């Protein structure tokens, strides 16, 4: 099976992120931020093997340039804690060629993000360390059919259960408030223009990535977006190592995260061996059970067949009382007698075990009662000694 990885993160001003800087790093290019005037130059960054900007057909063509795109994003997002972009990071199946990886990634991005109005900045990273992956930067604001940035949210009237507008009540008068120009005032709520921040989308997008990859992968290499527990697998999941951990290992050091994954893989190998052994034993037990079952069924069939033949001779046997019974009938009776004997033995063993259990229980109760009686006796004797001691003290009187 190919490796599955799909993580979703938000880049915002509140955590110090810059859309222009992030795009420059992921694409391995040099981009200048109009907001800060800083040029972010990552042209010497290695491992960027492919990048592209994908936009809706109705978006302005100048947004195909990532410098223009992300400067426009930072301009339209005015809040100090604004969400600038959404990033999806996916592991690319090593079983696919580079062309197949690009086609798979492009199909995923176009069908699930670009078609709904997002602009996407995509880059593939591969340093030849067996970890090819892609970064997908997505705009959090859509573009309408006029090529303008859409609002993220808007104010609408709050409705009650009957679908009626909810009035704003004046606490002093108990009546609906009246605003300027003698207009009645109604409660309003803020709603999102799109559902891109809906948590359910994370599940949809993760599953979609697995579905797209599986169209390109062979049957025994297909990936699954579900956790091992959801798949019914007993193996342990590895943790994300990251670039720094792999760099430490490449330089001859030992990364704690890589070491943890090595331990997890060793445990998983042991778990697989145990599961395979259990399956083998289960298969052997099943085969033996079937074999014994077939032997017993065949024996019963033969005995009943013989009994049927002996029944046909019953008239002759009654006519000739001195004739001996057939071997078949005697074998059947012997077999049945043996089964009855085994049943009686098992019932006797069960009754004996039950009797022994009851005897042990009765003995335990008897010992508990004896201990309680001994404790009560000691209490009475101690109390009697105490009373006797106090009486002697009174009789002797105080010392002179």
The overall pLDDT average reads 81
- Give the helix proportion (percent range): 40-55%
User: What count of helical segments does DSSP give?
Assistant: 8
End-to-end separation in angstroms reads 102 Å
Biggest sheet details: 5 strands, antiparallel
Q: Could you list the spans in which at least 5 consecutive residues all have pLDDT below 50?
A: 323-327
Derived from helix and strand composition plus strand pairing, the structural class reads alpha+beta
Total beta-strand segments = 9
Order of helices and strands: EHEEEHEHEEEEHHHHH
- Strand content is 5-15%
Looking across the biggest beta sheet, what order are the strands in? 1-5-7-6-4
Anisotropy-based shape: extended
Output the radius of gyration.
42 Å
Q: Can you describe this structure?
A:
The chain is α+β, with helices and mostly antiparallel strands and 400 residues long. The protein has 8 helices and 9 strands. It has helices at residues 19-27, 66-76, 98-112, 200-216, 242-250, 256-312, 314-319, 327-396, and strands at 6-12, 30-32, 39-41, 48-54, 83-91, 120-125, 133-139, 153-157, 188-192. The strands form 3 sheets. Strands 1-5-7-6-4 form a 5-stranded antiparallel beta sheet, sandwiched between helices. The protein has a two-stranded antiparallel ribbon with strand order 2-3. A two-stranded antiparallel ribbon has the order 8-9. Strand 2 and strand 3 (39-41) form a beta hairpin. The longest helix is centred in the C-terminal third of the chain and has 70 residues, at 327-396. The protein starts with 5 loop residues before the first strand and ends with a helix.
């Amino acid at each position: 099976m190919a490796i599955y990885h799909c993580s979703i993160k938000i880049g915002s001003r509140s955590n110090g992120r810059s859309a222009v800087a992030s795009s420059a790093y992921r694409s391995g290019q040099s981009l200048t931020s109009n907001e800060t005037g800083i040029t972010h130059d990552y042209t010497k960054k290695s491992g960027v093997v492919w990048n592209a900007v994908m936009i809706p057909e109705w978006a302005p063509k100048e947004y195909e340039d990532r410098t223009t795109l992300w400067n426009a994003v930072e301009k339209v997002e005015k809040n100090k804690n604004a969400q600038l972009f959404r990033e999806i990071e996916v592991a690319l199946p090593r079983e696919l060629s580079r062309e197949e990886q690009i086609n798979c990634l492009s199909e995923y991005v176009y069908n699930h993000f670009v078609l709904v109005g997002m602009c996407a900045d995509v880059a593939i990273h591969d340093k030849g360390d067996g970890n090819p992956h892609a970064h997908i930067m997505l705009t959090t604001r859509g573009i309408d059919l006029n090529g303008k940035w859409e609002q993220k949210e808007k104010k609408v009237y709050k409705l009650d259960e009957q679908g009626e507008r909810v009035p704003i009540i004046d606490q002093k008068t108990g009546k609906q408030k009246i605003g300027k120009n003698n207009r009645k005032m109604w409660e309003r709520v803020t709603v999102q223009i799109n559902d891109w921040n809906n948590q359910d989308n994370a599940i949809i997008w993760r599953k979609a990535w697995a579905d797209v990859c599986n169209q390109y992968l062979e049957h025994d290499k297909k990936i699954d977006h579900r956790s091992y527990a959801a798949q019914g697998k007993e193996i342990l999941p590895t943790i994300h190592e990251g670039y720094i951990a792999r760099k430490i290992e490449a330089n001859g050091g030992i990364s704690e995260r890589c070491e943890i994954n090595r331990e997890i893989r060793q445990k998983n190998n042991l778990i697989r061996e145990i599961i395979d052994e259990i399956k083998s034993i289960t298969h052997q037990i099943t085969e033996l059970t079937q074999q014994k079952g077939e032997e017993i069924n065949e024996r019963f069939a033969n005995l009943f067949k013989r009994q049927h033949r002996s029944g046909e001779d019953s008239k002759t046997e009654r006519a000739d009382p001195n004739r001996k019974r057939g071997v078949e009938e005697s074998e059947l009776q012997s077999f049945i007698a043996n089964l009855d004997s085994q049943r009686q033995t098992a019932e006797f063993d069960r009754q004996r075990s039950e009797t022994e259990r009851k005897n042990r229980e009765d003995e335990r109760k008897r010992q508990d009662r004896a201990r309680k009686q001994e404790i009560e006796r000691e209490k009475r004797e101690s109390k009697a000694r105490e009373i006797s001691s106090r009486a002697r003290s009174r009789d002797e009187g105080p010392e002179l």
